[in-house]
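Q: What residues go here?
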């Protein structure tokens, strides 16, 4: 894995259209972690484009109306951040939500960022591989961060994303 180049150089194209990001999180802790990553992206963009963000708790995706709305937002987004404790949260329903929009994905260099709390957890390894393959099939970049077993969520660790080659 190589260190991720500055996000600004990868995703920012001067434009009048907003830079749209969607967060999907498991609970408050994972939501805060995803928001920290989104804030880093916004900071690196500086004044190049306006930054818009929508956030969804994965439980809401079980409701058909919210499922459809979150899918439409993911299609329009340039970055989707999926923040989970471990791979067990990547349920059949969440995979269904991913499949609902990934094949219709649009945007300039779209990316899927996966954040996991438990690096050593075998379910996270399996989920990371699933998400990496799904992103590749959809023509999306894939980035992943896995924290150590303690779930350290310091600001420094939240901003260190690595390329999955």
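A:
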């Amino acid at each position: 894995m190589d260190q991720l180049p500055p996000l600004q150089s990868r995703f920012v194209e001067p434009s009048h259209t907003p830079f749209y990001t969607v967060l999907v999180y498991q609970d408050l802790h994972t939501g805060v972690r995803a928001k920290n990553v989104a804030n880093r992206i916004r900071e690196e963009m500086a004044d190049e484009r306006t930054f818009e963000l929508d956030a969804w708790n994965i439980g809401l995706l079980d409701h058909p109306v919210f499922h459809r709305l979150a899918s439409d937002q993911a299609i329009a987004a340039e970055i989707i951040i999926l923040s989970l404790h471990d791979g067990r949260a990547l349920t059949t329903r969440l995979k269904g939500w991913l499949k609902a929009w990934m094949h219709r994905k649009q945007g300039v260099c779209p990316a899927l960022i996966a954040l996991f709390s438990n690096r050593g957890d075998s379910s996270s390894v399996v989920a990371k591989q699933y998400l990496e393959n799904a992103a590749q099939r959809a023509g999306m970049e894939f980035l992943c961060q896995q924290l150590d077993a303690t779930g350290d969520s310091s600001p420094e660790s939240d901003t260190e994303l690595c390329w999955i080659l």
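A: Context that may help when evaluating the design: The radius of gyration is 15 Å. The first strand starts at residue 19 and ends at 25.
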